[in-house]
TrEMBL record:
Protein name: Neuronal-specific septin-3 isoform X3
Family (UniProt): Belongs to the TRAFAC class TrmE-Era-EngA-EngB-Septin-like GTPase superfamily. Septin GTPase family.
Gene name, Swiss-Prot/TrEMBL: septin12
A single BP term in Gene Ontology: cell division
Main localisation: cytoplasm
GO CC annotations, alphabetized: cytoskeleton
Biased composition regions of type Polar residues, renumbered to the chain: 39-48
Species this protein is from: Cottoperca gobio
Length: 431
């Protein structure tokens, strides 16, 4: 008896669906037995019918069991995914602080509408009221269309040449930096745009150390921000004059990077976000352009030059996927113009030639649209974040560590630390 009861207990309890199926089968078998006793003449036909019915029931039960197993697998997978997401969110939201208990509450677990999402509207209103600042530097030889491209990017005359009356192009004997600021407003959003031009870069016979004034300017802006940040009574909002992006113009030679290009990007890539572009790309055929871009990418990798966006700064898979597509397009082959032409009844920005019109914003003609999307529409805030959290933070750490800065000595400093120019540091502090 004990063995029998043990065997009964070991069997799995039947679900309600399986009980119904079993009852149905048992009832069917009893009916078939009664019919067989009452009508022995139709025994063969009844047997064949019961066999087919039993087979159908078995097939149905097998399909239902498989469906249940699949449903269970899908539910388990969903539960595992939810558990992983919860764990990731908890890892982000719950730092490992001893003695601190924290739980994650989903929106479905709330009793009603709280209104946390309204903070996005608050941030939007605050940003629109305060406005934002964006500082862009353009570097390259004279005649590569730097001013024209900047005007094309912002669809207004914001470059140094456009703002200077009776401007005459003269080759500067040394590299000089000129800054022009504008306030651009679009749909209620105000942006203070500062364009920093570098006339004289690469125009001399001897271009040795021609990048030093640019490196010095970038570090001076970091130093200026650091001083404001370390004041005891600092401003509520520190003016931001740091360079957020440097567009480096490469001449469309069709060969490789020149030594001056390699040296400049090596030094500047450590302290600012560099975006290389091929200027006046309409002088190359599509095949020449692709080969030139491939050679440039090889030279960048061979020389360890870091250009924006860097792989190590990708925060999540979605951002990595987007940035991988951008990295495949670097350097951008661009064409700039501020003149409009009629194409199929529509006004488009383009360069008119004897054989047709090169449309600046047409991706089939050039990659200006990709550059504009990167700088303004998709990565403008990320450029500012990388400048503040990576480049400025690196400068700040070096400045505090190497100079042994204290608040009492802060007012004695006169020169910024040359970040990215030389590895040597003087034993005596400038502060």
């Amino acid at each position: 008896m004990r063995e029998e009861t043990a065997g009964v207990l070991e069997t799995d309890p039947l679900s309600p669906m399986e009980e119904r199926e079993e009852r149905g089968i048992m009832g069917q078998e009893r009916e078939d037995e009664g019919k067989c006793q009452g009508q022995p003449a139709n025994m063969d036909t009844q047997n064949s019918m019961t066999e087919t019915e039993e087979n159908c029931v078995e097939v149905c039960t097998e399909m239902e069991e498989k469906g249940k197993e699949k449903g269970m697998e899908e539910r388990e997978l969903k539960k595992e995914m939810e558990m992983k997401l919860d764990a990731e969110v908890k890892m982000e939201l719950c730092p490992s602080v001893p003695g601190l208990q924290m739980s994650f509450i989903r929106g479905t677990d709330l009793f009603g509408y709280v209104g946390i999402e309204a903070v996005l509207d608050q941030m939007r209103r605050k940003t629109m009221k305060a406005g934002l600042e964006f500082n862009i530097m353009v570097v390259g030889q004279s005649g590569l269309g730097k001013s024209t491209l900047v005007n094309t990017l912002f669809k207004s005359k914001v470059s140094r040449k456009s703002c200077t009356p009776n401007y005459e192009e003269k080759i500067s004997k040394t590299v000089k930096l000129h800054s022009v600021s504008h306030v651009i407003e679009e749909k209620g959003v105000r942006m203070k745009l500062t364009v920093i031009d570098t006339p004289g870069f690469g125009d001399q016979i001897n271009n040795e150390n021609c990048w030093e004034p640019i490196v010095k300017h970038v570090n001076e802006q970091y130093e200026k921000y650091l001083r404001e940040e370390l004041h005891i009574n600092r401003k509520r909002r520190i003016p931001d004059s740091r360079v957020h992006c440097c567009i480096y113009f490469l001449p469309a030679t069709g060969h490789r990077l020149r030594p001056i290009d390699v040296e400049f990007m090596k030094r500047l890539g450590k302290i600012v976000s560099i975006v290389p572009v091929i200027a006046k790309a309409d002088t190359l055929t599509i095949e020449e352009r692709q080969e030139f871009k491939e050679r440039i990418r090889q030279d960048l990798a061979a020389n360890g030059i870091r250009v924006y966006p860097q792989k190590e700064f990708d925060e999540d898979p979605e951002e990595r996927f987007l940035n991988d597509r951008i990295r495949e397009s670097i350097p951008f082959a661009v064409v700039g113009t501020d003149k409009e032409h009629q194409v199929n009844g529509n006004k488009v920005l383009g360069r008119k030639t004897k054989w047709g019109i090169i449309e600046v914003e047409n991706v089939a003609h050039c990659e200006f649209a990709n550059l504009r999307d990167l700088l303004i529409r998709s990565h403008l805030q990320d450029l500012k974040d990388v400048t503040h959290n990576i480049h400025y933070e690196t400068y700040r750490v070096r400045r505090l560590n190497e100079s042994n800065m204290t608040f009492s000595e802060l007012g004695l400093s006169t020169w910024p630390l040359e970040n990215g120019t030389a590895d040597k540091c003087e034993s005596e502090s400038h502060l």
